[in-house]
Amino acid sequence: MWISLIAIALYLLAAGLLVRAVAQDKLADSRAWLWPALAGALLHGAYHLLVAWRTPGGPDMHFFSALSLVGLGMAAMTTVVGAQGRMAGLGVLSFPLAALLLFVYHAYGHEPSHGLDWRLQLHAWLALLAYATLAIAALLALMLWAQERALRRREFHAWLRALPPLTELEELLFRTIAVGFILLTATLLTGVLFVENLFAQHLVHKTVLSLLSWLAFGALLVGRWRYGWRGGKAVRWTLTAMVLLLLAFFGSKFVMELVLDRA
């Protein structure tokens, strides 16, 4: 579909405009990237709606579709936050990633999904929202690590000036983790309530890894509130928890759907 290729081009245009603004040290005043990013996200969402309309069964929730939907969530959140004047530079990473995931999904093709009732669809959508939010947190953690590293080495690059102050970036990181943690909690609760047979559906390893990730994110939030965790410790905990979450969902889907060829 041409709609996906146009969305990819718009994402890359938005990222290119952001890179130029960073190179010229004009990111704070630049809004040229906003409309291509918004249009790209809208077309990205429209592509998934068209696929759902044309594909028999329920919404396409297979491996590459789920990755693409997470990319859409990341792009949409970056656009909303960046439009408010905060962290527009995050689009340098999230927009190309969304474009790549959409391209892979388009190239791989679509598969009919088994019909899911509203309860399992709610569980699936909450999961995708949680993964997208916490993936944004992981990108923020990487940016925080790069910023701290550059400051320690007294390397004042143009991209460093495009980031907010260290304390503001850290605050945004923990706010994003808190929102993602709430969504992940809702995901686990709906899973417990709506999944009928945990063992028959081969979900034990997925559940265990998700719980470990939930505990890691929860421990990080408690550590921040109780002990003032920050900096490198916050980055390590965030990335460790995110790796566990990726293994829980996409690692499981990769093995089940692409290796074992099971729905």
TrEMBL record:
It comes from the Bacteria. The chain crosses the membrane at residues 33-51, 63-81, 87-108, 120-146, 172-195, 207-227, 239-260. The keyword Membrane applies. Keywords: Membrane, Transmembrane, Transmembrane helix. Coiled coil: none annotated. Pfam families: Cytochrom_C_asm (PF01578). The keyword Membrane applies. Residues 49-258 form the Cytochrome c assembly protein domain. This is Inner membrane protein YpjD. It comes from Pseudoxanthomonas gei.
